[in-house]
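User: I'm preparing a small set of examples for a lab meeting where we compare how different chains pack in three dimensions. I only have the primary sequence for this one, and I'd like the structure in C-alpha cell form so I can line it up with the others. Please keep the answer compact; I'll paste it straight into my notes.
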Amino acid sequence: MDEIVYHNRYTGENEIEKVYGDKALRWTYGSVAGRISLSLLVKRAAFSHWYGWRMDQPQTKAKIAPFVEEFGLDATEFACDVDDFANFNEFFSRQLHPEARPIDASNDSVVFPADGRHLCIPDLSRSSGLFVKGETFDISTLLKGDALANRYANGSLLLSRLCPTDYHRFHFPFAGTPGESRLINGPLYSVNPIALCQNIHILSTNKRCITQLQTESLGTVLLLEIGATCVGSIRQTYTAQHPVTKGDEKGYFRFGGSSTMVLFEPGRVQFDADLIENSAQNRELYARMGDRMATVVA
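Assistant: Understood. Below is the C-alpha cell output for the 298-residue chain.
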C-alpha cells in the first residue's frame, strides 16, 4: 500500500497521514522477514505488554515534547502541562479540557466515540468491502456468536481507527445504560491500513471488548474496543448498569494504535453525508470525538 490518504472534515481536503513507525510497519507487513517476526513475536500479547511496560518507565518522559512537536499536537487541549506527565504512557492516555471536545447537543444526533479516521457501513449485508473492494470481515467471528451476529447482520457499523498521535480515550456515542464489558482474547496485529489491506480479518480476530448499551431510541447499541500491536491494555473507566449521557468517557487505550467499532440495529441511524461519501471510496474521514456522525431515524 502506498500513502494513506484520508479526508479531513475540518479542512475539507484530502490529506496524507504521517504514520508513526512507518518504516517498521511496512517492513513487518511487507517483507518475508517481517512476516516471520510478526508470526513469532509481534502479534503476541507478551510483546505488547512489554512495550506498554517500557512506555511506563520514567525515562520515556523525554520522548513527549519531541513527539508533540513532530506531529503538531495542540498542547493547549491537554488537561495538564506537557512537563507534568510522568512517562509516555501517561501522556498517551491523557485527558483533555472538556471544552476541547464539545459534544453535539442535538437530541437526535449520534456522535463519534473517539478521535480518529472513520469508515461507515450503512448496511452490513450489502458491504462491498473495507480498505479493499470485496474484502470484509466476518461479523459472527467479530461478535463470537451467531445469535448476536444475526441480530446485526443487516445493521450499520462505524469503524474508528486511532493513530498513536490521537487522543486515546473513547466515549459513549449516545445516552443509555451500559452493561458489563466482555473480553474476547485474540492476537494483536496492527490495525493500520497497511496491515488491513493484507488481512481485513484482523478486525474480527484481534483482542477486543464488547459492551451492550441499552438506549431509548436506538435499541441495543454494541460498542467494541479493538486492541492492536503495542497496545499495553484496554482500560474501562465507566460503571456498568449506571446511566450515561452522550459523550461520557467509557475508557482509554494505553500505548499503541487501536480501533473502536459501533454497531447499530437495522434502520436505526442515518450516517452523515461526508462519512457515507468517503466510506464508499474506502477513504477514511478524520473527525473528533463529540462531533455528529449520524442522526436517529424517527
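A couple of notes for your slides: The chain has two domains: 16-92, 104-296. The radius of gyration is 18 Å.

User: Perfect, thanks.
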